[in-house]
Amino acid sequence: MDNGNNKYSIVCKNFYEWEIKNFNELSTKKVDPYHSNSSFGTYIIHKFSFLRSNCKFIWRLYLYFNNDEENENKDWISMYLKMESSYNRKIEMQGLFFIVNNVTKAREYIKEVNKTFESGNVREGFDQFIKKDQLMKQKDKLLTNDTLTVGVEFTINHDNFRSMTMLAKNPIAESIKALYETRRGYDVIITVQNRKFKAHKTILIARCPVFSAMFAKVIKEGHECQLSITDIEANTFDKLLEFIYTDEVTDLDTDAIDLLEAAEKYQLRMLKEMCEVSIFECLSIENSVKSLTIAERVNSKNLAHEISHFIAENAASVIETKDFANFEEENPSVGLMMFKYLAECNKNKNF
Fold first, then answer.
1. What is the pLDDT of residue 122?
2. How far apart are CA 265 and CA 11, in angstroms?
3. I want to staple 204 with a disulfide (CB 3.0 to 4.6 A). Which of 40, 211, 243, 301 is the partner?
4. Whether 103 contacts 141, CB under 8 Å
5. In 111-141, which positions are buried (b, 16+ CB within 10 angstroms) versus exposed (e)?
C-alpha cells in the first residue's frame, strides 16, 4: 500500500526443504567433512535463496547435532535459520520449522517462529528442536535410507522498501532505459581508457552524487561537456553506466568484484549491495582472497565476515592459489603466518 512516500510493504511466501543424506555418519562425527568442531559438536549448514521484487534474499539453515558431552542440549538436535542478505534491511518473518515424514510426506514436529531478521544478525531457531531418541524411534519414517528431510515455510514482510517491481513497470523507467540503449539526445561525452561514452547530464546528476559534483565544477568553470575519467577501467565504467540508467547489470556475476569497488567510489549504494550478493553467491577457493581484499577495502563488513569464514574453513586450499601467493608477497605480515598455521591445523584436524 502506498503511504504517500513511495514506500511499500512487500509480503512474500517462501517454502524450502533440505534433504540430508548419510545422517547417521554426519551426526556421530566429531568433525564433519564440511565444518570445524565447535562447542555444539558437529554441525552442517545449507544455503538457499529467493528472488522477490528484484531483491535477492539469501538464507542459511543450520542443523547442530550437539554431540559434545558437555553441551546442555546433548540429547537434542538444534535447528536455526539465519538471513545472510536482504539489501541490509530488516525483515519480519513468521513461519514454521518442521521434519518431513519420508513415507507419508506429511510434516511432523512443527514449531512456529515469529522473528525480526537483519542482515548479519544472529541465528534464530530452536536449541531443542527434536530429541535424538525420538528421532531414532521413528527412523523408519523420519530417517528412511538414512536421510532426514527438514524444512521451513515462512512469510516475510519487507517494510519500508521502495518496490522495484513498480519501478520496472513504470513508463518513465522504460523511457530512461531506451535512452541508455540509443543515447539519443546525449549532451556529454566521457572518455575512459580511450573509449568514449555518450550520456545525459541530467540522468547522471540525478542518479550519482559523484557525477553531480563533477558537473557542478564543469559548469562553474565553463568547460565543455566532456569529461575524462582515469580512476576506472572502461569495461567497468560501461557496466556502471548500465546500472545508472537501468538499475540492472548484464552478467553481474562476471564483473561483481571490480564493480563493487566502483560502486563504493561513485556512491551507488544499491549497486554495491547487488555486488555483495553476487560475490557471496559466486565465492570460490580461487577468488576468495581477491574478494576479501576488495570487501575490506570498501568496508563491506558482512561480506568480509562471510568470506573470512569461508577462507578459514578452506585454508589449506586457499594458500595454494595464485591470488594468495601474490597477497603473501605484498603483505609479509604475522597475519599470514597465523593463516598458514590455521591451514595446517585444519589439515591435521587439530583445530
1. 56
2. 33
3. 211
4. yes
5. eebeeebebeeeeebbeebbeeeebeeeeee
By DSSP bridging, strand 226-229 and strand 188-192 are: parallel
- Using 50 as the pLDDT threshold, list the residues of the chain that sit under it: 1-10, 31-40, 53-54, 86-87, 159-169, 221-222, 334, 338, 349-351
DSSP structure class, residue 146: G
Residue 245 has a pLDDT of 95
Determine whether 274 is exposed, middle or buried from the number of CB atoms within 10 Å of its CB (0-12, 13-18, 19+): buried
What is the pLDDT, as a whole number, of residue 257? Answer: 92
Q: Which residues contact 32 (CB under 8 A, 6 or more apart)?
A: 26, 42, 43, 44
Q: Rounded to whole angstroms, how far apart are CA atoms 233 and 238?
A: 9
Instruction: Tell me the angle at which helices 234-246 and 269-281 cross, rounded to the nearest 10 degrees.
Output: 110
Furthest CA-CA distance within the chain: 82
Q: Is 140 helix (H, G, I), strand (E, B) or coil?
A: helix
114: number of CA atoms within 13 Å, CB side?
0
Q: What is residue 72's predicted lDDT score, i.e. its pLDDT?
A: 83
Global pTM reads 0.52
What residue has cell string 566521457? Answer: 190
